[in-house]
Amino acid sequence: MKNKNPFLISGYGGSKYFCDRKEETEQLIRLIKNQVNVSLFAYRRLGKTGLIKHVHNQLKDDKEIVCLYIDILGTTELGEFTNMLATCVYNEFQKNNTIGKKIIKAIQSLRPNISFDEFTGSPSISFNISSKSQNEATLQQLFKFLDDQEIQITLTIDEFQQVLEYPENNTESILRTQMQQLKNIQFIFCGSNQKIMHEIFNNAKRPFFASCTPMSLGYIAQDEYSTFIRKMFESANREIDQTTLDFICSWTMRHTFYTQYFCNFLFASKYKKIDLKIAQKIALEILDTHESTFFQYRNLLTTPQWKTLMAVAKEERLLQPTATSFIQKYKLGTPSTVSRSIHALLEKEMILYNTSVEHPYYEVYDKFLLRWLEKGN
Ligand SMILES: Nc1ncnc2c1ncn2[C@@H]1O[C@H](COP(=O)(O)OP(=O)(O)OP(=O)(O)O)[C@@H](O)[C@H]1O
Ligand SMILES: [Mg+2]
């Protein structure tokens, strides 16, 4: 499509629409090829899933590696996890003749129910599992079928922290035990909750301790992102100057989804020659578009939480929430009130705490909300 908006805000559209992540892509491919299990952390909407899809795209012509991906956010128990994995395997191996037939036959031997999506027609597998032990056995068989094919498989489990919500409180140990028995399957566990990911993979008392190589995604470098944005506009015969590119990167803080969204909006505006004034107008339009959501956030928070959130926004990056100077500047009450609010805001994922830098800081998660709060709403 000639006039397609090149700034995607959902899904993956191929290398052409994917900015940078060269090092991370290389690193992940190297880890996959060397069968090293990985835990991949990044804040929400920074590009974990995009990176995985990009890596899969790079590996699509590699006949020796099969890439599997499941997003378990919507699952609530181990049985659903097993069904999702089986569905993914079933769909993937329908494409492959020899091994495919064997795997499909093996899945059929587990007597699944196969239903078809009424819109897409794609099959969905579920097992009639009545007991916990049967569930574990089914999962084990599924992994074993895959492992026995003597092909290399990389399995990404996105939103991995979801397993902690399962009623089976030993899901981690079940998966870890399975994992240790496999020779040909390499795992990538993705998650966006830093605290939970850290707990799962770095707590010596938990099954996954020291089982994975940690990787974390940061922000795309400013010059890479500006160049990408400029090229996208230029290929549609439109112009954008450097000051405007710098403004976009700093206003969205290069938090990938927000930068993409901004550029998508800007691209949709049809201006041929884009300058700072136009970008600033677009910024206000975006905030207007989202204002009703921001008001809803306000209704979900207590007054001290809201005031603290606004103060964090105004600081952009806050190092010490309990410092007297900060509390007095925004009239936030006592340090313990602020501590409680910060805790609640972290739990609600309204703010993030970046601990992977020399001086850890708090920041409002949603960059549009941050800019809206900053205006003093
Ligand atoms: N390198 C990139 N270049 C261009 N767009 C990207 C890039 N990475 C991600 N995106 C886009 O940014 C948005 C957010 O990325 P993605 O969904 O991969 O993030 P995520 O970390 O998986 O988020 P979540 O935690 O919500 O699952 C998507 O719309 C995606 O298309
Ligand atoms: Mg994702």
Automatic annotation (TrEMBL):
Keyword ATP-binding: yes
Pfam families: ATPase_2
ATP-binding keyword on record: yes
Top-level taxonomic group: Bacteria
ATPase domain span: 18-236
Molecular-function annotations in GO: ATP binding
Signal peptide (UniProt feature, chain positions): none
UniProt keyword terms in alphabetical order: ATP-binding, Nucleotide-binding
Name the record gives this protein: ATP-binding protein
Biological source species: Brumimicrobium glaciale
